[in-house]
Amino acid sequence: MAVFDLDMIKAVYEKYPSRIDAARKVVNRPLTLTEKILYAHLWDGAATVTHERGKSYVDFAPDRVTMQDATAQMALLQFMQAGKPKVAVPSTVHCDHLIQAKVGADADLQRSLNENNEVFQFLSSISNKYGIGFWKPGAGIIHQVMLENYAFPGGMMIGTDSHTVNGGGLGMIAIGVGGADAVDVMAGMAWELKFPKLIGVKLTGRLNGWTSAKDVILKVADILTVKGGTGAVVEYFGDGAISLSATGKGTICNMGAEIGATTSTFGYDDSMRRYLTATGRAEVVALADTIAEHLTGDPEVYTDPTKYFDELIEIDLNTLEPHINGPFTPDRGTPVSKMRSEAEANGWPMKIEWGLIGSCTNSSYEDMSRAASIVEQAVKHGITPKAEFGINPGSEQVRYTIERDGIIATFEKMGTKVFTNACGPCIGQWDRDGADKQEKNTIVHSFNRNFSKRADGNPNTHAFVTSPEMVAALAISGDLGFNPLTDTLTNDKGEQVKLLPPHGDELPTKGFDVEDPGYQAPAEDGSGVQVIVKMDSTRLQLLESFPLWDGQNIHGAKLLIKAFGKCTTDHISMAGPWLRYRGHLDNISNNMLIGAENAFNGKANEVVNQLTGSTGEVPAVARAYKAAGIPSIVVGDHNYGEGSSREHAAMEPRHLGVRAVIVKSFARIHETNLKKQGMLGLTFSNEADYDKIKEDDTFNFIDLVEFAPGKQLTLELVHADGSRENIKLNHTYNAQQIDWFKAGSALNLIKLENHSG
Asked: A Pfam family in this protein (predicted)?
């Protein structure tokens, strides 16, 4: 296949020298790689001011957008509302989340096609219409396919999945976002991010023996914990960083999501040149080489890093020991030499039931070949594996190549189940026999997350994260305390055998190969393409534009719910069984606020319908008000809407007739999402006024007609006894965001501008 988006990459690189030059003049000191990429992608062009880390909100112009099948549905349904004939930046959709692992690749894929056919058909047709590259079910995991085909040094990408950060393995700034952000960028708008803090990780020495790139991030997670990277980009550098393979760098960046980091990245070097060339992108290497000095941090930065990073960590790869992290959290690190004593002290089950290799974190050719070298030794010495084995290749290209090179055959000699090239068990898409019995057990895997219930739904499954080669050794031994560096295994003749350290090719010596990568190019002109959505579908529903503001004050509003305490996006729009309705706004709205605690009765999903006096479920009462033409409001506590950036949490109240959400304080992304959907997201000027809101009040917004930036709004509370009082509400709407409100939503405004332009 030809190189994707070569002209776009060329255009990005042509701007680099002048953009870096402008940033240097403004910042007036040497620059880190992260700063270079960010300053090179400012929406307004060349830098004119210094942006303050952790403080400044900055508009950026990402080079591309990537989406997976679970999140793409609502994002693309919204994009249809923008009235654009084509996406403004190169974008792709990858079908990897809706395939459950159970029997094996072919049967599992076929079952998913049968169950999710209408979702896949919709995604295929809408991608075809709007100029979006579509990767079919079975083509591979979004982040692995991205690294093999699209990632490029110095690029900026956003994706609707938290592990988009994998792209840092090829020197990108790649960031996971909510669907609404992706829609903005695809519609040609800017993308906003708080300018990140910087954590530097200096790697010295070289990996040896049983240690792998995975151990670097397992160690970093142990040091920083699951919150330690929040609001920061982690930049890796040093001789140790240069010695790692590009896919190894990808593994490290991928799991940066587990420390809360905005993203992680590495400077452009020979390992990236090798990987780009091996994956058919020698032309990208030729372009990158012309500006190579701009695709890594300045030498002064790496010589004296404490001056330039907000935090610095140093790791010596020569002495780094293989790690096993867990259970139940990816930041609890244990070196392999201490695992037996740690496990015994904590009562963790020692017998390993399953070893799983793959996921977007560790499914490269190098990962598979190193793990296979351990399996090969066991087979040769007559050692029978004590645990079950499963692998998920990262892409069809990796799967085809490892089959050609005999690696799959090696795994199969040990009875390994080869699952579809998809996320599978890593995201809980695993129909594991016996998981429903909820027995206490241990599994080891090469994934990134190991929270309770994540892989198989069993809260008593103790999942441990480690490298693919350690997964192989531990699964063969069946013993969590097994240390392959020192311990031996007994073979079928009763002999003691010590496994030799793993070895494997960084890249296939015969090159990558694939018959059908699973890619569908979009139509050159999509104007005649029909988007396929059945009228009676329960899983997909075309969106209708939200109504424009009528220009009047809002009178006679009722209280839907006054939420007490923590109210995250999970409380507002739960995931789990609701995932299947991610593309159907009306059906998924039946989960709206069902997790929020009602301040008046302490219960979830039970509120009073003020029209009838009876109690009902929150969505049902909202629908009753909407049907009667009565506006409603939601009142909330502190940090309302924290958690996942899912836009459903803002779209559902909008759809069910809620006009305003009034709280003590908002989580930033949720506040923005409410604004984008044409809602009023307001805060109490005096937090104590939260207590004045009574269950049976009626609400009037008496000066909404004068809505303006920086000007408070007045809410009149009409109590049941006829008494009235006014309270003041604050907002953070700028002029453009008020235009979103007036137009009914940000997308409505884009559409209006398109038609008038």
From this structure: Aconitase
